[in-house]
Every structure is written in structure tokens, then in C-alpha cells.
Specification:
By secondary structure, the protein is mainly α. It has one domain: CDP-alcohol phosphotransferase transmembrane (TM) domain (Four Helix Bundle (Hemerythrin (Met), subunit A), Up-down Bundle). It contains six helices and no strands. α1 packs parallel to α3 and α3 packs parallel to α5. The longest helix has 29 residues. It is globular.
Amino acid sequence: MIANLITLLRIALVPFVLWVVFAEPDRGSAWRWLAVLLFVLSAATDGVDGAVARKRGEVTNLGKLLDPIADKLLIGGVLVSLSMLGEVDWSITGIILVREIGITIYRFAVIRDRVIAASGGGKLKTIMQSIMVGFLLSPANWMPFGVQPYVEFGLIWVSVVLTVWTGIGYLAAGAKK
């Protein structure tokens, strides 16, 4: 029960993260550090809710459904916001959202037969997406030697590949059942 409340807290924090992103949309603003802080706190609850559920023996089907939805709301919401601000190409946001929404629809389509929990690859994908979004959300040029754009490009590339790869993996596994 506590784990599900932590997941609901993550969902409740999403509007606050997005509000801070738009409060001062200039990427050079100190507000961006507040956005990063709120995002990291929100994203960190992803590991906390799972650990609490396992430790207390409270792993539930509701938690298995809510947890990935909370991730998608947080990561997807920030990506859409950054695309609206012209900071992330819409094609990147689109690829990620199509996969995330598609797999969520798939999960609900088969819910009568089984609940599909996140796979190891899906968890890695979420971690990489969270790292990517944290970097993209952070103020511009905070890294030395002008490497930030290269780091961000690499994180985007890895995240998109993992997003597509794990999406295909979910569908392939589902087709075998």
C-alpha cells in the first residue's frame, strides 16, 4: 500500500515539475536547476516504490500498472514541454511517446489475461530516459569544455535505441504467448 502511495506521489509531482519548466523557460535560468531537482526527486521515487513493495511484500498488480504510467507521465511530460520550448526535436519526443503510449495500450489490452510488469530492459530504458531528460532539462552550458551538447546527443541516441529495442521486445514476447 505504501509503495502505491509513493507512485501516486510521483504522479502528483509531475504538474509541479512542468510548472517550473515553464515558469522561466530560458534554459540559462536558475529555475532550471529547480526543475532538475524536482525531476530527480520524482524520478528517484521510481526505485523507492519498487524497493518498498518488495521489502514489505506489497507487490500488487495495481502497482505494476501505475509505476510505468507514472514514469511515462513524468518523462513524457518533460519531453513534450522541452519540445514546446524548442529545446528537444519533436521527432525524438514522438518516437519515445509512440513507444510508451503503444506499450501502455498493449498492457491494458492484455490485462484480462495477465499484467505485464516492466522487463529488465524496460527498467534500463527508463533509467536512461531519466538521465537523458535530466541533462536536457538542466541549464545550458553547465558542463566544462563545451561537451554538454555531445553528452546530450549521446544520451538521446542511447535512449531512443533502448526505447525502440525494448518496445519491439515487449511486442515480440507478447506475440509468443
